[in-house]
Every structure is written in structure tokens, then in C-alpha cells.
Amino acid sequence: MRIADIEVVNLHFSYPNGDGFRYAGGTVTSRVSSIVIVKTDDGTTGIGAVYSHPDLVRIIVERQFKPMLLGHDPLEIDDLWRKMYQLTLWYGRKGVAISTLGGLDNAFWDLRGKALGKPVYKLLGGNANLVPAYASGLFWHEDVRFLEKEAARHRDRGFRRVKMRIGHSEEYDVAAVEAVRRAVGADGDIIVDGSHRYTLETATRLGRFLEDKRVYWFEEPFPPEDIDDYAALRLQINMPLAAGENEFGVQGFREILRARAVDVAQPDASRTGGISECVRIAKMAAECGVRVAPHTWSDAVAVITNAHFIAATPHSISVEVDQTGNPFIEDLLTEPLDIEDGMLRLPDRPGFGIELSLATVKRLALPPDQTIPDGNYSDLIFGQEHWSVPPPYMSRREEVPQRGRH
């Protein structure tokens, strides 16, 4: 088996009337993701997801990786990973280059599974094909009753755990969490994403409230570079602290693990360097007593890829499933994601066990010569008219009692 061709498909979708959802980064108008397709000389195809700047993904694959990979055995995954890493080392240890490398790594794992007749999770040492999954949505609404209704819908669709976005104001955050708790009930789990909006003081005070509401974990209260604040907050609150969607590779996660900054590490196989790098990160996390729960925000290929990784990782928690009406999640595969009673069921077919819906790809793919249109893509913003600076976080400014972790 040899690599005969590599294709990049950039997917683009705009929400009706350009009005998807609102959070600290403004109003999201559109979504974007990239799929890499590796074709071999025996007709086998492997697919992988990349969540990064799509135009740059295409350049790195087509102009640098593809000429260097054609003719190679795609099953020599470790050798190809090292080769791609060396090719981009000078400019790519963190960011789009290692994310792109990871998308190809994922496609190679898909090919290895197909060649050996086994699902990827079994190649990685897993046994069960059921993976805990949580619904990711619950963005800002002026009336928190909308959040209560949305959370109830997620429960009705089979999710037992939901993730919501806070960081609006302290008054809003409290009301929003209380509304979602009413909807999911005493037996449901709530995850909160802070969207980098807090100071150590406000995060500590809010953390007290989140403890009382039995929030499952507190995600990204600070920007990723504020590692010292993460480490300090862990000593002040008695609930898990999570981060990692903005980290890349072993070197990035080594920084936060050495600092004892998190309880839950969140590598994403479509961002941090592929399944191969996620496995290395998970091993390092286990040595630090840290659990793993991948971030996934792009497409169903990424969800399935991360789920295979989680199914083979004993100290893992869950996989994230976007619930914002994203067709990359709902329509991209010929068979929809199978979620029941809070569990995602992985196909037991070889590789990832999935196939792309050609009709959906045709409908949502950008032409190869077209760059990404202006818009707010949740994590990427193009065009000055879509740039917005959120108002300062309004806190109640009570005195923060000092209380140690136990």
C-alpha cells in the first residue's frame, strides 16, 4: 500500500440570516472545517479532520506535505509523523502546521484499521465501542429561560451531560447555571466554559457557586497563556479545572501538566497533532494524575476520531458533540452519530468505520481556488465588520474567602 494522492476539502456553512449564536467573541455567522482524504494505490481511502485556518491547511498539505508523502507506506505512521514534524518544525510546533499534520495522522490511522480489518479503538488497545458523550451548546441568551429549554432538549435527545458558555457577567452566569441545573435535573451533569473571561478573583468567587451547583468541570476561565492563574485557582476551588483546546502537541501539554494547572486535559485529535500525539499526551497526563476529555468543535469526523481515542484511554471522561445546528456534525456522514442514554456508539467496522456523505460534501465544499469568506466562525474571524470586543466582565466584587483545596 502506497500513498497515491492527498486531497483537502474545506467545508463552509452559514447559519440562516448569519445569526448562529452569541458568546464572548460576538455573533457567530458561519462554521468552517477541513477534511483531508488520503488515497492509496490499492484504492483504499483514509479520512482525517483538521480544525484550523482552512486556507493555510490547504497550502501546507498541497505545497509541502503532499510532495513529500506520495509513494510512502501510510501504515508507517510513526515515521510519517516524525517526517511531517521535521518539515514544519521551524514554523509549526504550535498552531496550524501541527494541526494539519494531525489530520493526516488521523487519516493514516483510518487506513491502518482498514488494512488490518480492525476498528481504530481496538488498534489502540480499547475493547468497548461505547463512549460517554456530552451536548455542547447553551450560548448566551438575554432570557435564561431559553437555556433551560435548550438543555431540556439535549436531555430529550439522549444526553446526560451538557456544556454551557458563561463569562457574560456574574449576575448572568449565576442565573444561567441555575436555569440549566433546573433543566438537567439532579442526575444530569453541567460543564461550564468560561471563554477566558475571568480574573483569578472572579473565577475563585464563581467557583464557589459552581461547587454548590455540582458543576462537573470549570473550563478555560483564563486565556491559555495564564498558566499561573490556572495553578492558583486549583488551590482555591474544590472542583475539576479543564483546559487544552488551545494547546498543541506534547510540548504544549507538558507546560500545563508540569505546572499542575488542570485536572482535565483536553487534547483534540483534529488540532493537537492527531491520534498519535493524543496518545502520547494521555500517557503524560496519566503520570500526573490528570484525566482526559477531548475538545471537539468542528465536524463528525473529528468527533468519531476523538471517540476512538477515548474508547482506548482508561483515564478518559467523555467526548464533545456540537449541538448548534451544525451540518458538519449532523449531515457529513452517511450514518448519523449514534447517541443514546449519554453514550456514543462507535461503528465496529475497520478504521474509523465511517463514510462521508458525498451529497453533503458537494453542497458544503468550497472550490479549491476560493478562500474563506468573511464572517465570524466562532474561533476564526475574517473581516473587520465581524470583529467585536466584548464588554468588560461585570462582577459583584464581593470579598473572596480563602479556602484550600481538599
Description:
The chain is an alpha/beta fold and 406 residues long. The protein folds into two domains: 3-118 and 360-378, Enolase-like, N-terminal domain (Enolase-like, domain 1, 2-Layer Sandwich); 121-353, TIM Barrel, CATH 3.20.20.120. It has 13 helices and 17 strands. The strands form four sheets. Strands 6, 7, 8, 9, 10, 11, 12, 13, 14 and 15 form a ten-stranded mixed beta sheet that branches. Strands 1-4-5 form a three-stranded antiparallel beta sheet. It is globular, with a radius of gyration of 21 Å.
Summarize this structure briefly.
The chain contains 13 helices and 17 strands.
Outline the fold blueprint.
Elements: E1 3-14, E2 21-23, E3 26-28, E4 30-40, E5 45-50, H1 54-69, H2 77-92, H3 96-116, H4 120-123, E6 130-136, H5 145-156, E7 161-165, H6 170-184, E8 189-193, H7 200-212, E9 217-219, H8 227-234, E10 241-243, H9 249-258, E11 264-265, H10 274-287, E12 291-292, H11 300-311, E13 319-322, H12 327-330, E14 339-340, E15 343-345, H13 358-364, E16 375-376, E17 381-382
Helix pairs in contact: 1-3, 2-3, 3-10, 5-6, 6-7, 9-10
